[in-house]
Amino acid sequence: MAYKIDDTFCTGCSACETECPNQAIYEKSGMFYIKPEKCTECIGSFDEPQCVAVCPVDDTCIIDTKYPRYVAA
Amino acid sequence: MLSLLKSDTAPRLKPLGGIKVELAGSSGCGTTGGAGKSGCGSSAGPADMPPEIWEKVKNHPCYSEEAHHHFARMHVAVAPACNIQCNYCNRKYDCSNESRPGVVSQKLTPDQAVKKVLAVASTIPQMTVLGIAGPGDALASPHKTFETFRQLQEKAPDIKLCLSTNGLMLPDYVDEICKYNIDHVTITINMIDPDIGAQIYPWIFYQHKRIHGREAAQILTERQMLGLEMLTARGVLTKVNSVLIPGINDQHLIEVNRAVKARGAFLHNIMPLISEAEHGTVFGLTGQRAPSAQELKEVQDACMGGANLMRHCRQCRADAVGLLGEDRSDEFTLEKVEQMEVVYDLDKRRAYQAGVEAQRAAQVAAKQAAQAAQQADDGIKVLVAVATKGKGRVNEHFGHAHEFQIYEVSANRTAFVGHRRVDHYCQGGWGEDDVLPSIVTAINDCHAVLVAKIGACPRDELKEAGIDPVEKYAHEFIEQAALSWFAEYRERVANGEIVHQTRGDASIRQGAYLAA
């Protein structure tokens, strides 16, 4: 699984963009999105997913169940 | 109508218990011609501080009470990200009707920001200061913040640069701050006790972890104090902002004042909490109330003698443009800036600044003459509200005022103690009856309101509320007018014409600026 950003909650503050260890987060017309193929859920990098930890609005960065759980290489 | 409104607001205006209030007889905020230390930071001018510091602050509207009549500032919103969560902030809120910190309509890249600054500076020669104040934390987006400063230092070297931060990342960026010649930094410090901090900050994001509660507040306060000490050691002027939250940090701010003064803070700005349910902040939703005008003044007065206090803060938006209390950001949207032909004329800007120096000298001379002419102080002090468009004069029509400046007057001194924002009374040529009661509550602690002109209807209602509407000092210097009015007032008391009475409390205006 990867994380995704719920654009109804996202404030566009960009805090997650710089914290992501995989540069998986990008901006498009003021809103932010996660490239699922790049997201590692921060497994192997940090104790907690950085986008979730830094986001000012709870439940904005959430697991995208469309994708299988990330497995560290 | 008036009495109804008074009873509505009365329960909110509880006196603040337990705060030691220094009587301002000898240590008041303001000027005594050089002998007394000013409680309002830089309001006293050169006599109040070392010349090298005066040189740095005299044209800075946010640092000098006197400069804010003449000079303008702008904020550019290049730093949207934040690394802490505050209970008085809601990052989702964006409304261009609203005027308060943390709120912004249009985010800018560093390149766009630089273009906008140059456009504003060439249109408004008063613009001397550029600040990065968010809407998040300037040091949570360090690359965007410092890239903006780097370009501006090159392209507009006469503009003073400043930044505002919560202090969490400050120790890591003191070198960068010095590198770009940023000589004014503001740190928001609401507590030095982590138990109090835990009630203000739900969490911080630090070293890749979200940290909650007391531990978070402990780290934050340590980083803030370290950052402040480092800036002081490097000679960077540092102002501390504190949000006064009744019941949480009101009395504690006196300790904060001592702590930041001891670490070299140049000014301490104690601001009222802005808390309305419609803003969607935690405090707004939990019903945490804002302080009344008198509660704010009591804490500010109790802090006199600590770090110099600043009382003219207008709690600007993070993208404000113009003189304090004024916002011209609509004239400088990205689209408009793109179409403007920008000629950065340094000579024109210097000429304006020289003109201000002359006006400033006249104002200081008038104030000194007025004070010298007054009699001995018998300890009676009152507040007066003043309608002014700037330049230190009573020059605004009552109905056109966005705000009233509040001066504390005694027999031989005047002191600027704050301002009260109001909605316009006069709209399209006639008065708005709904607005007048809110103006009365905003200046309800004042004995008089000095104006350039006032209509018959508001004049009668103000009189009924016990506030003397005074037109006779129209276009005079404020300090002179206030002292002359007070001399007359005392004469009328002395000959039995009126009885001196103390006034009640006033409320601080919350919510959106709908009638701008």
H/I helix tally of chain A: 2
Count of distinct strands of chain B: 18
Distance between the termini of chain B: 24 Å
Residue ranges of chain A: pLDDT <50 for 5 or more in a row?
none
Strands of the widest sheet of chain A, in order across it, are 1-4
Determine the mean pLDDT of chain B: 79
The total count of helices of chain B amounts to: 15
What is the assigned CATH homologous superfamily of the largest domain in chain B? Aldolase class I
Layout of helices and strands:
The complex is a heterodimer of chains A (73) and B (516).
Chain A: E1 2-5, H1 15-19, E2 25-28, E3 31-34, H2 50-54, E4 61-64
Chain B: H1 2-9, H2 51-57, E1 72-75, E2 84-85, H3 110-123, E3 127-132, H4 142-155, E4 160-165, H5 170-179, E5 184-188, H6 194-197, E6 203-206, E7 209-212, H7 213-233, E8 237-244, H8 252-262, E9 267-272, H9 282-286, H10 293-302, E10 309-310, E11 321-322, H11 334-339, H12 346-373, E12 382-386, E13 403-410, E14 413-421, E15 426-427, E16 430-431, H13 435-442, E17 448-450, H14 456-464, E18 468-470, H15 478-494
Parallel strand pairs in B: 1-3, 3-4, 4-5, 5-8, 8-9, 9-10, 12-17, 17-18
Antiparallel strand pairs in B: 1-11, 2-6, 6-7, 12-13, 13-14, 15-16
Helix pairs in contact in B: 1-13, 3-4, 5-7, 12-15
